Amino acid sequence: MELKIINKKHSNDVKKIKVKNVVIGGNKLVILAGPCAVENQKQIMESAEAVKAYGGNILRGGAFKPRTSPYSFQGLGEEGLKLLKEAGEAYDLPIVSEVMDTREVEMVCKYVDIIQVGSRNMQNFSLLREVGKVKKPILLKRGMAASLEDWLNAAEYVAAEGNEDIILCERGIRTFDSFTRNTLDLSIVPIVKELTSLPIIVDPSHGTGVRKLVTPMSLASIAAGAHGVMVEIHPRPKEALSDGKQSLDFTEFKNLMEKAIGLNDFLSEN
């Protein structure tokens, strides 16, 4: 595997990416949370309030949704980004959202602090080159059938265009098992930290697709050494237009945050 830019240069080579008042890749655990999709102002404001109240750091929310079925909710588009930005500003939270099309990169950049490239676009090389030209951090999710080499080379595509502020996100891969939505590959966390300088976070919501597994797999991600965890929350998961089955309600999110902070503190002291 030939990595010319993102490869680890020495043992303490860890890239720290600052987004407003949040540092990803440092010693402090970073929690990214919010709904799978922005549905309306009330929903995203309630979510932002919960993220802030319970100790989260970054607000996530989808405005453009690449769904398996063309008949599923596809997101609110630019209106969703406006609502997400409004919620982030109201609660002093940086925001992250996905871009799907090279033609929309400039528009998405007007609203978000971090640009997400989703799993389905991990090897969309035109999109990787385009986001590599912008001056905002890129959150690059692992493709659902991507090898480690595929994933890291996708990051190299972004870096080769000049943008080295890349956050890797493990979100599960497809295997033969059908109980969970995907198989969360936590072994990738220490491997990525050994091979690259890039920070790595884990998305146990998509990694499992099962609400009751999100908290234990979040804690396992932290124990494995992840710099952060990205989870989906919703004020009323049963009413969610997208991914309600894997979204935590606010009480569950509060419980997760208490355990995550406690575990991170313990690991930092030992």
TrEMBL record:
InterPro entries: Aldolase_TIM, Class-I_DAHP_synthase, DAHP1/KDSA, DAHP_syn_2. GO terms for biological process: aromatic amino acid family biosynthetic process. Its EC number is 2.5.1.54. One of its GO terms (molecular function) is 3-deoxy-7-phosphoheptulonate synthase activity. It comes from the Bacteria. Keywords: Transferase. Residues 19-258 form the DAHP synthetase I/KDSA domain. This is 3-deoxy-7-phosphoheptulonate synthase.
